[in-house]
Amino acid sequence: MTVVPYKDQTASKKEQVAQMFDNISPKYDLLNRVLSMGIDISWRKKAIKMLEQEQPKLILDVATGTADFAIEALSLKPEKIIGVDISEGMLNLGKEKIKKMNLTDKIELQMGDSERLLFADETFDAVIVSFGVRNFEDLEKGLQDIFRVLKKGGTLVVLEFSQPQGFFFSHLYNFYSNNILPTIGKLVSKDTAAYTYLPDSVRAFPFGDGFLKVMHKVGFTQTVYKELTFGISSIYKGKK
Predict the structure, then answer these.
(1) What whole-number distance in Å separates Cα of residue 239 and Cα of residue 215?
(2) What's the CATH number where 17 sits?
(3) Which of 6, 25, 45, 220 minimizes the number of CB atoms within 10 Å of its CB?
(4) CA 136 from centroid of its chain's CA atoms
(5) What local confidence, expressed as pLDDT, does residue 1 receive?
């Protein structure tokens, strides 16, 4: 069953996700910091650190949003980062952020569909995705296209929410995600669906070994994953 933000609409998941992020984009960064208590910043740092040995020169950031992951990836000293996203609202905020930080020569943001990337085969040294793969309309198709645009020997690093498995923490997490998170999200963003969709999409996502199986299926090798903060999120890495 496909999880969508607006269950009363007939639009595709892709269209609904774009609409949802357009709706919440003005408050997205604030909500990220509040709802994760700032832990998402350290998660991104740890994910990018997994690319240190590769030292990629050209990086693609899929589902870049407001470009936080792309900005963090500058610590790798790449020549260029291109970020793509289906939400114009998120991209506009990302572009403003990059302009204020004088990073327009290093980071380029553009509209882009994760399942139909407008780049030639074997273009990028690395592809990164933070909290975006669970929003793909077709997870396998999205990963196939990422695999296509990666150079041979290139690396994919994905940061995504997962589900804590310990009895106590899983119950605490479920209470937070089902009750507190939607309430805060509604108050701040005025979009109730966005923050009920988030826990629903996390539950539907094949985290851990399940996601590694999908990576293997499309051709990735040397796949590993690492749990963060009791399993709230995980970092996945694979090679082409």
Answers:
(1) 10
(2) 3.40.50.150
(3) 45
(4) 10
(5) 67
Please tell me the total count of domains within the chain. 1
Long-range contacts of 230-233 (CB under 8 A, 24+ apart): 230/164, 230/166, 230/169, 230/173, 231/162, 231/163, 231/164, 231/165, 231/166, 231/169, 232/39, 232/161, 232/162, 232/164, 232/173, 233/43, 233/159, 233/160, 233/161, 233/162
In a domain, 44, yes or no: yes
Which residue pairs, CB below 8 angstroms and at least 24 apart, start in 171-176?
A: 173/230, 173/232
In a domain, 141, yes or no: yes
Q: What is the pTM of this model?
A: 0.95
C-alpha–C-alpha distance, residues 63 and 75, integer Å? 19
- pLDDT tens sequence across 44-67: 999 999 999 999 999 999 999 999
The residue written with tokens 């991104």 in the block is 44
Neighbours of 231 (CB within 10 A): 18
pLDDT tens, position by position, 6-50: 988 999 999 999 999 999 999 888 877 777 778 999 999 999 999
Q: What sign for the dihedral angle of Cα 10, 19, 205, 221?
A: positive
